[in-house]
Amino acid sequence: MRSEAACWPGEGDLDLEATLERPRPWGHDDIRLQRRVPREADVVAVLDMSLSMTGEKIALVAVATAILRIKLQRVAVVAFDTVPHVLVRAGEAPSVRELVRRVLEVPAQGYTNIEGGLLAGHGELRRGRQRERVGLLFTDGVANVGWDPVRAAFRYPRLHVVHVGEHHPQGARCCLAMARAGRGRLYRARAYQDLPTVVRRAVSELFRS
Q1: Do residues 14 and 31 make contact, with C-beta atoms less than 8 angstroms apart?
Q2: What is the CATH number of the domain that holds 135?
Q3: d(CA 122, CA 152)
Q4: Statement to judge: residues 31 and 110 lie in one domain
Q5: 13 & 72 share domain
Q6: Please, which residues bridge with residue 85 across strands?
Q7: DSSP string covering 14-74, please?
Q8: Does 28 share its domain with 69?
Q9: Distance from C-alpha of 99 to C-alpha of 86, rounded to nearest angstrom
Q10: pLDDT < 50 stretches in the chain
Q11: Is the bond leading into 149 cis (omega within 30 degrees of zero)?
């Protein structure tokens, strides 16, 4: 949700401070209101699903993605290993059960091509219709194929990065650089078990009014 200014006799709560700032005598247009309206945004989740992602890790990524779907209603999803895989297109709204099924069916294989995942995610955002467009990247930051992911991060209007897993100097530097390039925030989930909690906090902080 977001706050929006309005005037009487529209719907909303009286904004006393803004009303008192209006010159007198007051007309009905000078009675200022504040109302809460839905905040629309196109969001893409970009998931690192390379060979190191097995068993419990994939399940926890699926839970985190389900939280995004529940909280944001619509979210495109791209998984990547050596190449990207579009699991949910922009504008598509599968059920939570179906979304989890798609994530769980991605085989953990191949190398880590963060740049490829980011480019595919950016492509989905360009298909969206909302003015606000946001990417959420989940990765350990250690790319071993593809080109520089930081350059791909520059393409995003806003890219937030969730650095997942054990601390690795190269991965930590890359995640921080991608968040800065995408004008976004960096979150840290030290273990995959922390990922659902971190995602709930990130959604609360990033998409509140």
Answers
A1: yes
A2: 3.40.50.410
A3: 9
A4: no
A5: no
A6: 79
A7: E-HHHHHTSPSSP-GGGSEEEEEE----EEEEEEE-STT--THHHHHHHHHHHHHHHHHS-
A8: no
A9: 12
A10: 209
A11: no
Query: What is the phi/psi pair of residue 107, to 5°?
Result: -70, 135
Contact 77, 49 (CB under 8 A): no
CA distances from 136 to 31, 32, 33 (A): 40, 36, 34
Same domain, 85 and 111: yes
CA distances from 182 to 149, 155, 167 (A): 11, 7, 21
List alpha helices for 163-206, DSSP H: 169-181, 195-206
Q: Contact, 41 vs 133, CB < 8 A?
A: yes
Q: What are phi and psi of 44, to 5 degrees?
A: -125, 135
Domain region containing 171: 42-206
**pLDDT on residue 115:** 97
Per the CB < 8 A criterion, the answer to whether 46 and 137 are in contact is yes
48 neighbors 143 (Cβ within 8 angstroms): no
Q: How many structural domains does the chain have?
A: 2
